[in-house]
Amino acid sequence: MEIIDFYKFVEGNPLFRQMSVDDVLFTAYDCPLEGSPVDYSTEKNYFCYVFVGGGRWKTPTEEYTLKAGDAAFLKKGVHRVFKILNGDFCALLVFMPDEFISSVLKNETDLNIDEVLEEQTDSVIPLELNESLLYYFNSLMSYFSQSSPPSKSLLKVKFKELIVNIATSGNNPLATRCFKEIAAPGMMKSLKLVMEENFIFNLKLKDFAKLSNRSLASFNRDFVKTYETTPGKWLKRKRLNYAKYLLETTDLNINEITVESGFENTSHFIRIFKEHFNSAPLTFKKQQLIK
């Protein structure tokens, strides 16, 4: 499945109202979700607050539905989105690089970012919206209706406010943990976390390297140290096992499983599945139904 560079599509697009400061961009995204599913990539993390319509975000382990009045924090990387309602999808998006989130956590809060985090967070984190956050998102939208845009200094304060509000309110522990992951000193993003979050997407090795904040050479070297195999071999085995899991647990057809597992095309998937499991996918699925 083709991956759409969502951030580049939005940034500077005259179709969408937007404002930015210090690599932070917020925009009123008012556009249909064309097709279903769609894979979107983004080089920056982003907050999504839905005003109209809805969508379903799928990760390798969970599915998250956002409807009007819902919000989530989405890590940089790739997200698979399914349209769930007819009509437009309208949302407020706030894109933030790791560096901005890290700076706010270190300089504007008293959070301990040196603590060891036992559990890793998913790439999509739904937000619990209290009255303060609801007011916040609506206040951002109000800037688009003003006769003149707010100052850059005010926008910067507003963007910092969002991070501080979520990180210190106690209502969103998963988002707070994720911010700490991003701000951890001297740490490159966990290679294992990057691979587990994104193996279902048809990315090139240079894309995995970029998501882990490594050069391609460092990525390949660290990968072999971590997994004791090459990235290509690991991805093939991981995707095949995931496809096997989907055949065992879902009603998806072979074409859908090809896409869901990150393979380029169905014929390629069928061939290597048969080589690995000594059974064609459809035959394997029928055998599961008999059990």
From TrEMBL:
Superkingdom field: Bacteria
Domain HTH araC/xylS-type: 189-287
Gene3D superfamilies, A to Z: Homeodomain-like
Sample GO molecular function, one term: DNA-binding transcription factor activity
Short name of any one Pfam family annotated for the protein: HTH_18
Keyword annotations of the record: DNA-binding, Transcription, Transcription regulation
Full protein name: HTH araC/xylS-type domain-containing protein
